[in-house]
Amino acid sequence: MDFLKLFIVALMSVLKLLLLTSVGIFLALDRIDILNDIAMKHLNSLVFYVFTPALVSSSLAKTITLRSMIMLWFMPLNIVITYIIGSALGWLLNKISRVPHHLQGVVLGCCSAAGNMGNLLLIIVPAVCKENGNYFGANKDVCYRNGLGYASLSQAVGNIYLWSYVYNIIRIYSNKNSTVAQVDDSEENELENISRCSNEQLVNVESKSETTDQFEIMEHAMPIREAKVTRMGNVMKQMQILAKKIDVKTLLSPSTIGSMVGLVIGVVPQFRKVLVGDGAALRVVQDSVTMLGDALIPSLTLVLGANLLKGLKGQSMNLKIIVGIVVVKCIAVPAIGIGIIKGATRFGLINPDPLYQFVLLLQYAVPPAVAISTVTQLFGAGEGECSVIMLATYACATVFLTLWSTFFMWLVL
């Protein structure tokens, strides 16, 4: 396949993203003030609660069946692998660059391949199919529908992982920061107490030995069965601690619920016959949901542009950390992903569909998810630094994503 033609196809899809993003940046400028903070809040709410679940549910209902679910089993595992690789590289970056403690959770979240696996794929993959449908199939409509289904499933699985893993990583590090501050305050209080008590009379050795003997007698007098804790009790205690640490409500985001609804409609034949298809009795419901979902891509891209503008106004950050994150996300993870996908293809673990393999490869090359900045705002941990990271990674992704998309298409076709 001609490499130059593939490069033009990949470039056109990324240019569409850049044009819409630049419109979002323009509308968010202070002189224009259309996408101001209030407008952004309302548009974010529409994207999060309405447009995203509508598009995900309608796309999955049209494209995913029980047979295709069995064929696409590798996608959830592939996303887990991206998180493992990214987490390992992020941990190394924290150690090598000596990242400040309050930013280590943000760096891990951005490097852990918590990529924009749904929103960007929903833009890039259909754009590639529309640009030239002969590469992934003779029928552009079939390519578009299948690509939208793959991207929707990627978004559904990616959201679950992001809100279960990255959310708790940043939360744990933010809690550690507050704990460190509390320890520092307690140490200062202890020093003050020591200085106050330095002039008081010390306790006699004899009285101290008498009190320790009494404590030893009381300890031996305790019943042995009361001192022992059953193994089941320990297990239940650990489960309760784990349940407190993981916020289950965050896993049930609107997009996750929409994914579940779409999967149920697509997998269950009775629901599919009633709702999906030109001859379906309730096809008007599916068409209405699809119309709502079509508003996601332009709205989301405008929001992305407005969020990136904050990075231009954000605070300064160590250049070494930014370069490290860009190298991890834009070079190291995609390169490792090629070896994993090619190895899985050789062993027959992946569906031979070139479009499906292209989506799996793209999951390694996308920049960090915009939702990470939302998580940092929730915990107040590195908000300004996260906006700078987003600006740098997305600016570099315009070049690297085009090159990787071209190479991926050349690899699978």
From TrEMBL:
Q: Answer whether the UniProt record assigns the keyword Cell division to this protein.
A: no
- How does the protein associate with the membrane? Multi-pass membrane protein
InterPro entries given in the database record: Mem_transp_PIN-like, PILS1/3/4/5/7
Q: Name one Pfam family in it.
A: Mem_trans
Q: What is its main location?
A: endoplasmic reticulum
Superkingdom is: Eukaryota
Q: Which GO terms describe its biological process?
A: auxin-activated signaling pathway; endoplasmic reticulum to cytosol auxin transport
Quote the protein name from its UniProt record. Uncharacterized protein
Q: Where is the protein situated, by its record's location annotation?
A: Endoplasmic reticulum membrane
Query: One cellular component GO annotation, for this chain's record?
Result: endoplasmic reticulum membrane
Q: Which family does it belong to?
A: Belongs to the auxin efflux carrier (TC 2.A.69.2) family.
Which ranges does the record mark as transmembrane? 6-29, 41-61, 73-93, 105-128, 148-167, 246-268, 288-309, 321-341, 361-381, 388-412
> Does the UniProt entry include the keyword Transmembrane?
yes
- Residue ranges of coiled coil: none
Q: Which organism is it from?
A: Arachis hypogaea (Peanut)
Keywords of the record, alphabetical order, are: Auxin signaling pathway, Endoplasmic reticulum, Membrane, Transmembrane, Transmembrane helix, Transport
Function according to Swiss-Prot or TrEMBL: Involved in cellular auxin homeostasis by regulating auxin metabolism. Regulates intracellular auxin accumulation at the endoplasmic reticulum and thus auxin availability for nuclear auxin signaling.
